[in-house]
């Protein structure tokens, strides 16, 4: 079952989708799904994950939401602080609406970066966290997709357009924010037992070696997906990732 809704807080409107089995009153556990850069809450792999999770564990639900400037979101300029605000709004909504502290995070790529930034700079409200191909060197990754003319514009204090199907504005402050909030400089030892990283060994967008280094430094379990690309195009690779995350999020007996 799916339910679309907006959370209107702090002058913002966060566009969300709730995925659950059949009966909302049974929900005890919430997984917040954070998509990657250029994605949206209607991501097919997330829908598959939500369907399988809620079919197996009927007391679980998944809240997908659009980051600022993504999907159906109304904003035009991407600001890191607003991304943090969105994640706070969704997390607090989940706690209040479903009367639970059992909140999990499933985050991919740029969403994984934002999740790591959040728990290091704001706090960790999540019981467990599964990261798929997290952008631990987000400043460098974003820079790969910026042309030389656009770099010059940024240096002059001008805005540029980035993105895929939907374009959004960024400026020098955004890029400087990525450099300043380099998650590789934070320590995650206190949360390591409750985090897993899943990453394709042939990822063409976020280097697999980045996750190897990050996981090793923070003693986080890294689960390689052999020959997997960034979006795990091979259905068997995606099925493996989904199964692994579902088992990691399984209720404790």
What can you see in these coordinates?
- The chain has eight helices and ten strands.
- It has 253 residues and is α/β, with parallel strands linked by helices.
- It is globular.
- The chain starts with a strand and ends in a 5-residue tail after the last helix.
Mean pLDDT: 97
Quaternary state reads single chain
Are there runs of 5+ residues with pLDDT below 50, and where?
Answer: none
Number of helices: 8
Main-sheet strand order equals: 1-2-4-3-5-6-9-10
Evaluate the radius of gyration: 17 Å
Terminal Cα span? 26 Å
Shape verdict: globular
Structural class: alpha/beta
- Beta-strand residue fraction: 15-25%
Total beta strands: 10
Helix content: 25-40%
Elements, N to C (H/E): EEEHEHEHEHHEEHEHEH
Biggest pleated sheet:
8 strands, mixed
Structure described in brief:
The protein is 37% helix and 23% strand.
What features would you highlight for this structure?
253 residues, single chain, 8 helices, alpha/beta
Layout of secondary structure:
Layout (H helix, E strand, L loop, with lengths): L1 E8 L2 E8 L9 E6 L9 H13 L3 E6 L14 H19 L4 E6 L1 H12 L6 E5 L5 H7 L3 H8 L4 E4 L3 E4 L1 H9 L14 E6 L7 H11 L2 E5 L9 H14 L5
Parallel strand pairs: 3-4, 3-5, 5-6, 6-9, 9-10
Antiparallel strand pairs: 1-2, 2-4, 7-8
Helix pairs in contact: 1-8, 2-3, 4-6
């Amino acid at each position: 079952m799916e339910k679309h809704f907006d959370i209107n807080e702090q002058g913002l409107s966060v566009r969300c989708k709730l995925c659950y089995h059949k009966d909302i009153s049974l929900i005890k556990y919430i997984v917040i799904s954070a998509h990657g850069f250029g994605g949206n809450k209607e991501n097919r792999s997330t829908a598959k994950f939500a369907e399988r999770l809620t079919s197996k564990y009927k007391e679980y639900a998944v809240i997908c939401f659009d980051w600022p400037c993504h999907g159906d979101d109304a904003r035009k300029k991407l600001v890191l602080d607003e991304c943090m605000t969105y994640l706070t709004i969704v997390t607090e909504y989940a706690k209040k609406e479903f009367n639970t502290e059992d909140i999990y995070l499933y985050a991919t790529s740029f969403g994984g970066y934002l999740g790591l930034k959040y728990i290091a700079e704001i706090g960790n409200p999540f019981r467990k966290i599964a990261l798929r191909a997290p952008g631990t060197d987000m400043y460098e990754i974003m820079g790969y997709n910026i042309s030389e003319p656009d770099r010059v514009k940024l240096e002059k204090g001008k805005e540029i357009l980035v993105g895929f199907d939907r374009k959004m504005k960024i400026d020098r402050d955004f890029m400087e924010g990525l450099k300043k909030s380099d998650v590789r400089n934070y320590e995650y030892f206190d949360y390591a037992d409750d985090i897993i990283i899943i990453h394709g060994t042939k990822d063409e967008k976020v280097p697999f070696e980045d996750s190897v280094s990050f996981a090793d430094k923070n003693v986080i379990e890294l689960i390689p997906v052999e020959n997997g690309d960034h979006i795990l195009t091979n259905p068997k690779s995606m099925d493996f990732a989904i199964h692994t995350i579902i088992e990691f999020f399984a209720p404790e007996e």
